[in-house]
Amino acid sequence: MTTFYKDFHAKKGAGVHRRVFHYVPSHGDDAVDRNIRGCGTLQGIKQIHQMLDIGKPGRLMIRTRSCHCDSCWIGRYAQCANKKRCGDPREVCLQPKAHRRLAETPAEIAANTGLNISREAQKDDIVCVMVRQEHEPWMLGRVCGSLGSHELKSAAVDTPHATLVPGDVVLETRKLEPINPGTKVFDVTTKVFPVRAKDVRLGKMEVEYKQVRRSRRGRSAPQRLGMHSAPRISMQNEATQRCEISSATHAKMLASVLVGS
Asked: How far apart are CA 71 and CA 74, in angstroms?
């Protein structure tokens, strides 16, 4: 872009004073939602050469001409020194043509799906929950109780993955812990805590349960009482419930978490 040959004073206040460009990204924190409603034609639009956003949805401040006097430069348009030439500022309302529902984002679709899954969840259903942690992006849980999801009405609750506050819609679950990283086999643990219903990504997952026995080392009675007798180690068997998901279910689960992240 070329520079101006004459400055603002040489042109006696006429013409373009300066051009200001603002970069608006298409996505991210500073992005602008361009999927907005259309509006009807503003009467006399051809004679209007200044339009300003006044921070009210659907309303604009308009004038016949724009001005760059000291008052207008700081936004005091009613005190414009060139009011006779530029006209009085006035506020107009843009009339929308028709209401158009904005498209949902993938995250919003996933959250609504999670609420629906949690609402219909029944006792002992297996659900996949997105927990958004680097070492554990998702978890499997078995639904506890028969009421499905409900609104948290008590005080804030700290869970292993988040802090839930009153008003959150939650689902009580018993955590299923993988026996190894990347495995499709899980142990049913004794960890019971609520999860956000909107973070549920998959419900009614098909699993195959197995009963396994795990050995646990224990000390003999004299050792527990502090008596220094001959060391004896007893082996105690504990029954543990274990479940396994199929490869197809595992792939479907990972896809649902990826889409809703």
From this structure: 6
Query: What is the CB-side half-sphere exposure of residue 103 using CA atoms within 13 A?
Result: 5
Q: Are 104 and 112 in contact (CB under 8 A)?
A: yes
d(CA 172, CA 178): 19
CB-based contacts of 244: which residues, under 8 Å, 6+ apart? Answer: 184, 185, 186, 207, 208, 210
In angstroms, the CA 185 to CA 178 distance is 6
Q: Tokens 């502090």 label which residue?
A: 226
* Continuous segment of H or E residues that includes residue 112: helix 106-120
Contact 130, 261 (CB under 8 A): yes
CA distance 218 to 150: 42
Alpha-carbon gap, residue 132 to 127, rounded angstroms: 16
At residue 116's C-alpha, the angle toward residues 170 and 195, to 5°, is 20
pLDDT, residue 234, reads 44
Sign of CA dihedral 53, 54, 59, 64: negative
Angle CA 233–235–236, to nearest 5: 135
From the CA atom positions of the chain, what is the Rg in Å?
33
Contact 118, 197 (CB under 8 A): yes
pLDDT at 127: 93
Q: Give me the sign of the Cα torsion angle 198, 202, 206, 209.
A: negative
Percent of the chain scoring above 70 in pLDDT? 77
Give per-residue pLDDT as tens, 193-229.
999 999 999 898 888 888 776 655 555 555 555 555 4
Residue with tokens 């643990």: 189
CB 229, CB 223: distance < 8 Å? yes
The average pLDDT across 124-148 equals 85
